[in-house]
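Deliverable D2.4 — example input (structure tokens):
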């Protein structure tokens, strides 16, 4: 797969922004992006506005113009779903079934201590479900309090509109055998769902933590994602996977379920992998580059394609800065912080 350079993207970006909201109102359209036009399964070398549809049938190409403002379009069938995991409460609480870490690090499973009422189409049958996602990395608040937070996504940290600050979180998640009380490691401190961000910050308790990601190592800082660069993520479900940043211009419509509904996230990082990049339970994992800098927060995907929030807006909206191993012990909060 070839990747468009920034000059080509800069020329197309204003046209894409002009039409994307109108395209997203059309039946079956779930995303708008910038990429290379493919015809007959072969790349053409031409930059295009890529329109994602949930099922590519004979009507979908016809509802999108062949070109807009001199820029060609390309209609691509894609399935983009939030990658939190859900199981019914009855089957999800089997102690010892999940990965346990005495020291908290990025890339491990986490989930709310409470269960949620969930119904179709997000799950096959309505009922009480428990949730699992990934604890991505650690950050410290900028308000002077120096609270240490674990980063995950809004749809793992809040789930629906019934959330409140102080909600408890367990590691391992209840999906993976964690139990309320003994396995509580954090509480919900803040969250954001707007613009390009689906994120939550979980205030850590007295469990020790380390500013690194399992199978990746110490986090060295934050950086913008660069098209064509290799990234890694360590998620609760798929473990360590690799991909290449294919775009930083993806706009996607995601269904957050009852109470929240469909929301549009803009300027998402699109990652392409030769294999399976992410799956249910990986939401909240961080994307890191070759220098172990965090570039994104993984939210959704489908098979070999993944989508992530750019890390810059995540940190700004949560009003935190990323933690690295150089942060002194004095900035670690006690149990009552």
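Example output (designed residues):
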């Amino acid at each position: 797969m070839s990747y468009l350079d920034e000059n080509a993207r800069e020329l197309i970006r204003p046209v894409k922004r002009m039409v994307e909201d109108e395209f997203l109102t059309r039946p079956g359209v779930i995303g708008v992006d910038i990429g290379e036009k493919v015809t007959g399964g072969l790349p053409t070398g031409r930059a295009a506005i890529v329109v994602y549809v949930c099922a590519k049938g004979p009507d979908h190409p016809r509802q999108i113009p062949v070109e807009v403002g001199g820029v060609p379009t390309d209609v691509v069938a894609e399935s983009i779903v939030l990658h939190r995991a859900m199981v019914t409460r009855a089957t999800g609480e089997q102690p010892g079934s999940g990965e346990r870490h005495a020291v908290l690090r990025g890339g491990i499973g986490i989930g709310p201590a409470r269960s949620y009422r969930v119904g179709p189409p997000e799950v096959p049958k309505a009922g009480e479900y428990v949730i699992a996602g990934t604890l991505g990395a650690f950050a410290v608040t900028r308000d002077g309090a120096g609270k240490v937070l674990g980063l995950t996504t809004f749809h793992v940290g809040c789930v629906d509109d019934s959330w409140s600050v102080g909600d408890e979180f367990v590691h391992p998640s209840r999906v993976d055998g964690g139990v309320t009380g003994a396995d509580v490691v954090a509480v919900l401190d803040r969250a954001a769902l707007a613009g390009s961000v689906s994120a939550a910050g979980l205030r850590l308790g007295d469990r020790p933590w380390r500013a690194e990601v399992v199978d990746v190592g110490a986090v060295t800082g934050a950086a913008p994602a660069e098209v064509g660069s290799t990234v890694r993520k360590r998620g609760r479900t798929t473990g360590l996977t690799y991909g290449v940043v294919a775009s930083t211009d993806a706009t996607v419509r995601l269904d957050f379920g009852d109470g929240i509904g469909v929301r549009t996230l803009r300027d998402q990082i699109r990652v392409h992998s030769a294999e399976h990049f992410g799956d249910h339970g990986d939401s909240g994992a961080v994307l890191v580059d070759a220098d172990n800098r965090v570039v994104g927060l993984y939210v959704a995907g489908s098979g070999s394609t993944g989508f992530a929030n750019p890390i810059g807006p995540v940190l700004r909206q949560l009003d935190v800065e990323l933690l690295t191993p150089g942060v002194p012990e004095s900035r670690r909060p006690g149990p009552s912080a």
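The chain has three domains: 6-78, 86-214+318-323, 220-315.
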